[in-house]
Amino acid sequence: MSQVHEALQSQRQVWRQVCQTMIKSRMGQSLPSTLPHRILLFGVGSSFFAAKLTAYTLSREMLTAKKRPILPVIACSSVGIGIEVIPKKGDWVFAFSHRGRSEATLAAMDQCSRAGAFTAWVTAQGAAGSPSAQLTIPTSELEKCEPHTVGMTSAVCAVTTLLVGSAAETWMSLSAQKDPDLAFLREKLVHPPTLILGEWEGEWIAREIALKLTEMTSIRPLVYGSEEYFHGPKILSENVGSTEKIWYIFSGGDQRSHQITSEYRVDISGASSLSWVSALVELQWSVLALALHLGKNSDAL
User: Fold this and answer.
1) Fewer beta carbons under 10 A from the terminal one: N or C of the chain?
2) What per-residue confidence (pLDDT) applies to 51?
3) What are the sequence ranges of the domains in the chain?
4) Torsion angle, CA of 219/259/59/106, rounded to 10 degrees?
5) 145: phi > 0 → left, psi -120 to 50 → alpha, else beta; which?
6) 3-state helix, strand, coil in the chain (%, to 5)
7) Residues β-bridged to residue 121
8) Is 182-293 the same fold as 3-175?
9) Average pLDDT score over residue span 190-204
10) Which one is the CATH code of 182-293: 3.40.50.10490, 3.30.1450.10, 3.40.1170.60, 3.30.750.24?
11) Is the distance from CB of 20 to CB of 155 less than 8 angstroms?
């Protein structure tokens, strides 16, 4: 069994452990006593995608809970801090770095600290810390190989559990679900995708899955938001007569869904702000299934 396979099998147990750690440690008491002006989240690679998915979760929570004030929640790449987003006093900053070694993320944290923001470092257990962090939030154990799967989802689990009162219950419910059937996926997914599409959370799941495909199979599919796909890429494909093999992450409200013919579709369904998690997990297992079908070593990187 590969290390990636072992990590995926342990993922739901890790969520339970992260929730229990966040609750028992009473880490929420380490947050400032006043509400933030803004919540900023950043990282690079899978950590960036974790930041984006966390931002969507927090925003949807505030939009659906009428009593909760609606605060700006901004996620960007670590290199966007100071250019796309200017940190300032009153911000709460969450920097995601699984191994704690990203120079861009460390530099962004330092910039946020110097600006007077409250700074939290979201990283694996035992990973390198940030001297600029006022709070360190532990996630999973360090993953044994480069295709990070559990590290990515456990980071979202930790931050949402810290900031959203109902999140722990939702993560515990998700942890009780069964994993996808790997044997079924191996039979179903025999052709690698050329395109992965999605909107909102679906787009960032698509970007994460494209990265996992590159890391685990050396396949490099293109990724677009659903609407973006119809502004150029689709026309180009039609003009050259190519037949795309599309993996599509459907989100309710995606007005382009009826125009997308996909070989593999995964739906984000449910009222919870964390409904996207099940779709991501299914696709993580799907990448492993495709790697096994193609005879690839998923731990190669």
Assistant:
1) N
2) 98
3) 3-175, 182-293
4) 20
5) beta
6) 45, 20, 35
7) 95, 136
8) yes
9) 96
10) 3.40.50.10490
11) no
CB atoms within 10 A of CB 147: 26
Joined together, the tokens standing for residue 271 give: 């009222």
Task: Report the residue count for the chain.
Answer: 301
Q: CATH assignment of 3-175?
A: 3.40.50.10490
pTM above 0.90, yes or no: yes
Per-residue model confidence as pLDDT tens digits over 9-67 = 999 999 999 999 999 999 989 999 999 999 999 999 999 999 999 999 999 999 887 65
Residues 27 and 198: their CA atoms lie apart, in Å, by: 34
Half-sphere exposure of 12 (CA within 13 A, CB side): 14
Average pLDDT, the chain: 94
Cβ pair 121, 43 in contact under 8 A: no
What pLDDT sits at residue 92?
98
Grade residue 188 by pLDDT with cuts at 50, 70 and 90: very high
CA dihedral 143, 26, 157, 78 (to 10 degrees): -70
Beta bridge partners of 89: none
How many Å apart are CA 9 and CA 179, to the nearest integer? 8
